[in-house]
Write a structure and sequence with these properties.
With 174 residues, the chain is mainly α. It contains 7 helices and 2 strands; from the N terminus they run αααβααβαα.
Amino acid sequence: MRLWDYAVQVYAVGGIKDCLLTLQDKHGGDVNIALWCLWCGYQNIAVPGTEVPSILSTADSITAKVVRPLRRARRSLSEPRPEQDASAFAVLRQDVLALEQRAEQLVLNQLERATLATGSRNAGPSGMQETASSLFMLALKHMDIAPTIDDEGDPESPTRLFASILMLAKDHGP
């Protein structure tokens, strides 16, 4: 299954969207990178740890220069001032959302292409949880998010959020 198709299906699973957006908004995490980690686990793709920074950097420019500015624009269109035409803002917001989603698809396609060029399928039984969790720990470093050693006190820590996302994806995803 293609990464984009997997991401769309997983994002629609109840609870995953909220966890991903908390990871993004509270910790500065990248939703697309988290979805990539899940997809690698789902596809049982072994990615050498030394290749993870290179793979993730293939999408950094698109994320920084296109996805994030579109997200900011879309969010700013959510609350027009009373003197502004709310319906016109709503239409424009939908157009920006469509562009943002196309940009995210481009990011995911880049990540997929880079992964398939360097990763390989594991021959053994699927270890979705282990693969995805290991990649996420490496991805945290790339996203400049410090993994907490003991995050049991914070159910919204990055590692706890990802664990929740992973379990939901594993139990209810494709």
